[in-house]
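Example record

The entry below shows one chain as it appears in the dataset: sequence first, then C-alpha coordinates.
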Amino acid sequence: MMTDHDLRQEMLTSIPNLRAFAVSLTGNLTYADDLVQTTLLKGIENLDKFEPGTHMRAWLFTILRNQFFSDVRRKRREVDDPDGAISGRFAVMPTQDARLHFTDMQAALSKLSPDQREVLLLVGAEGLSYEEAAQVVGTNIGTVKSRINRARNRLMEILGLEQDDDFGPDRLEKASMPAHSLV
Protein backbone atom coordinates (compact mmCIF):
# COMPACT_ATOMS: atom_id res chain seq x y z
CA MET A 1 0.00 0.00 0.00
CA MET A 2 1.45 3.36 -1.05
CA THR A 3 1.38 6.24 1.41
CA ASP A 4 0.63 9.85 0.53
CA HIS A 5 4.36 10.51 0.76
CA ASP A 6 5.08 7.75 -1.78
CA LEU A 7 2.39 9.07 -4.11
CA ARG A 8 3.79 12.60 -3.91
CA GLN A 9 7.28 11.30 -4.65
CA GLU A 10 5.94 9.49 -7.69
CA MET A 11 4.30 12.76 -8.78
CA LEU A 12 7.64 14.55 -8.47
CA THR A 13 9.41 11.99 -10.60
CA SER A 14 6.78 12.57 -13.32
CA ILE A 15 7.59 16.29 -13.68
CA PRO A 16 10.08 15.98 -16.60
CA ASN A 17 7.61 13.85 -18.58
CA LEU A 18 4.72 16.20 -17.75
CA ARG A 19 6.79 19.18 -18.85
CA ALA A 20 7.73 17.53 -22.15
CA PHE A 21 4.08 16.67 -22.79
CA ALA A 22 2.97 20.21 -21.88
CA VAL A 23 5.57 21.77 -24.20
CA SER A 24 4.42 19.52 -27.03
CA LEU A 25 0.80 20.63 -26.46
CA THR A 26 1.42 24.34 -25.99
CA GLY A 27 4.60 25.17 -27.87
CA ASN A 28 5.30 27.71 -25.14
CA LEU A 29 7.75 27.01 -22.30
CA THR A 30 6.22 29.48 -19.85
CA TYR A 31 2.68 28.27 -20.42
CA ALA A 32 3.89 24.65 -20.29
CA ASP A 33 5.47 25.26 -16.86
CA ASP A 34 2.24 26.88 -15.65
CA LEU A 35 0.27 23.93 -16.96
CA VAL A 36 2.54 21.44 -15.16
CA GLN A 37 2.22 23.43 -11.94
CA THR A 38 -1.58 23.50 -12.23
CA THR A 39 -1.57 19.77 -12.95
CA LEU A 40 0.52 19.01 -9.85
CA LEU A 41 -1.69 21.20 -7.67
CA LYS A 42 -4.81 19.48 -8.93
CA GLY A 43 -3.13 16.12 -8.47
CA ILE A 44 -2.27 16.90 -4.84
CA GLU A 45 -5.75 18.29 -4.17
CA ASN A 46 -7.33 15.15 -5.63
CA LEU A 47 -4.83 12.61 -4.38
CA ASP A 48 -7.65 10.83 -2.54
CA LYS A 49 -9.25 10.12 -5.95
CA PHE A 50 -6.14 8.42 -7.34
CA GLU A 51 -6.70 4.68 -7.51
CA PRO A 52 -3.72 2.78 -6.11
CA GLY A 53 -2.42 0.21 -8.53
CA THR A 54 -3.06 2.42 -11.54
CA HIS A 55 -0.39 4.40 -13.33
CA MET A 56 0.34 7.77 -11.65
CA ARG A 57 1.94 9.29 -14.75
CA ALA A 58 -1.07 8.43 -16.93
CA TRP A 59 -3.38 9.96 -14.31
CA LEU A 60 -1.32 13.17 -14.27
CA PHE A 61 -1.17 13.28 -18.09
CA THR A 62 -4.98 13.09 -18.13
CA ILE A 63 -5.23 15.99 -15.67
CA LEU A 64 -2.75 18.04 -17.73
CA ARG A 65 -4.51 17.30 -21.01
CA ASN A 66 -7.95 18.14 -19.59
CA GLN A 67 -6.60 21.40 -18.13
CA PHE A 68 -5.02 22.32 -21.47
CA PHE A 69 -8.27 21.79 -23.39
CA SER A 70 -10.25 23.69 -20.74
CA ASP A 71 -7.83 26.59 -21.17
CA VAL A 72 -8.19 26.43 -24.96
CA ARG A 73 -11.99 26.53 -24.72
CA ARG A 74 -11.85 29.45 -22.26
CA LYS A 75 -9.37 31.40 -24.41
CA ARG A 76 -11.63 31.04 -27.44
CA ARG A 77 -14.20 33.13 -25.60
CA GLU A 78 -11.63 35.69 -24.39
CA VAL A 79 -10.17 38.61 -26.31
CA ASP A 80 -6.62 39.81 -25.76
CA ASP A 81 -7.00 43.40 -24.56
CA PRO A 82 -3.80 44.44 -22.76
CA ASP A 83 -4.38 48.20 -23.02
CA GLY A 84 -8.12 48.04 -22.21
CA ALA A 85 -9.18 49.61 -25.52
CA ILE A 86 -11.78 46.95 -26.30
CA SER A 87 -13.25 46.73 -22.80
CA GLY A 88 -13.41 50.53 -22.68
CA ARG A 89 -15.92 50.47 -25.51
CA PHE A 90 -18.22 48.28 -23.43
CA ALA A 91 -18.45 50.58 -20.42
CA VAL A 92 -21.80 50.34 -18.68
CA MET A 93 -23.37 53.25 -16.93
CA PRO A 94 -23.99 52.65 -13.23
CA THR A 95 -27.69 52.09 -12.56
CA GLN A 96 -27.93 52.45 -8.81
CA ASP A 97 -28.86 56.14 -9.02
CA ALA A 98 -31.30 55.74 -11.91
CA ARG A 99 -34.20 54.80 -9.65
CA LEU A 100 -33.56 57.81 -7.40
CA HIS A 101 -33.38 60.16 -10.39
CA PHE A 102 -36.60 58.69 -11.76
CA THR A 103 -38.38 59.15 -8.41
CA ASP A 104 -37.11 62.74 -8.14
CA MET A 105 -38.32 63.48 -11.67
CA GLN A 106 -41.76 61.98 -10.97
CA ALA A 107 -42.11 64.10 -7.84
CA ALA A 108 -41.01 67.23 -9.72
CA LEU A 109 -43.41 66.55 -12.60
CA SER A 110 -46.28 66.20 -10.15
CA LYS A 111 -45.57 69.77 -8.95
CA LEU A 112 -46.08 71.24 -12.41
CA SER A 113 -49.44 72.57 -13.48
CA PRO A 114 -51.46 70.01 -15.45
CA ASP A 115 -51.19 72.12 -18.63
CA GLN A 116 -47.39 72.35 -18.38
CA ARG A 117 -46.97 68.65 -17.46
CA GLU A 118 -49.22 67.57 -20.33
CA VAL A 119 -47.31 69.39 -23.10
CA LEU A 120 -43.92 68.58 -21.61
CA LEU A 121 -44.74 64.86 -21.58
CA LEU A 122 -46.25 64.93 -25.06
CA VAL A 123 -43.16 66.57 -26.55
CA GLY A 124 -40.42 65.26 -24.24
CA ALA A 125 -41.57 61.73 -23.46
CA GLU A 126 -43.84 60.88 -26.39
CA GLY A 127 -41.73 62.62 -29.02
CA LEU A 128 -44.52 64.64 -30.58
CA SER A 129 -43.64 67.82 -32.43
CA TYR A 130 -44.86 71.17 -31.08
CA GLU A 131 -47.46 71.20 -33.84
CA GLU A 132 -48.73 67.73 -32.98
CA ALA A 133 -48.85 68.55 -29.25
CA ALA A 134 -50.82 71.72 -30.05
CA GLN A 135 -53.34 69.63 -31.99
CA VAL A 136 -53.65 67.10 -29.14
CA VAL A 137 -54.31 69.72 -26.44
CA GLY A 138 -56.38 71.95 -28.73
CA THR A 139 -54.31 75.13 -28.58
CA ASN A 140 -51.87 77.00 -30.78
CA ILE A 141 -48.15 76.22 -31.18
CA GLY A 142 -47.07 79.41 -29.37
CA THR A 143 -48.95 78.35 -26.24
CA VAL A 144 -47.32 74.90 -26.35
CA LYS A 145 -43.84 76.43 -26.66
CA SER A 146 -44.56 78.80 -23.78
CA ARG A 147 -45.87 76.02 -21.52
CA ILE A 148 -42.87 73.81 -22.29
CA ASN A 149 -40.44 76.64 -21.55
CA ARG A 150 -42.15 77.42 -18.23
CA ALA A 151 -42.31 73.68 -17.38
CA ARG A 152 -38.58 73.21 -18.04
CA ASN A 153 -37.67 76.26 -15.98
CA ARG A 154 -39.91 75.09 -13.13
CA LEU A 155 -38.40 71.58 -13.24
CA MET A 156 -34.90 73.03 -13.03
CA GLU A 157 -36.00 75.09 -10.04
CA ILE A 158 -37.67 72.12 -8.28
CA LEU A 159 -34.71 69.80 -8.94
CA GLY A 160 -32.18 72.43 -7.91
CA LEU A 161 -30.52 72.58 -11.30
CA GLU A 162 -28.90 75.83 -12.34
CA GLN A 163 -27.98 75.28 -15.96
CA ASP A 164 -28.52 72.95 -18.88
CA ASP A 165 -25.16 71.28 -18.10
CA ASP A 166 -26.77 69.71 -15.06
CA PHE A 167 -28.83 67.45 -17.32
CA GLY A 168 -27.13 64.24 -18.40
CA PRO A 169 -24.47 62.14 -16.66
CA ASP A 170 -23.52 63.15 -13.13
CA ARG A 171 -19.97 63.24 -11.75
CA LEU A 172 -19.96 59.50 -10.93
CA GLU A 173 -21.38 58.53 -14.31
CA LYS A 174 -18.87 60.74 -16.14
CA ALA A 175 -16.01 59.14 -14.21
CA SER A 176 -17.11 55.66 -15.30
CA MET A 177 -17.54 56.54 -18.96
CA PRO A 178 -14.76 56.32 -21.55
CA ALA A 179 -13.46 59.77 -22.49
CA HIS A 180 -14.58 59.45 -26.14
CA SER A 181 -18.25 58.99 -25.13
CA LEU A 182 -18.36 62.34 -23.32
CA VAL A 183 -17.61 64.35 -26.45
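Notes for this example: The mean pLDDT is 81. Residues 38 and 64 are 8 Å apart (CA to CA).
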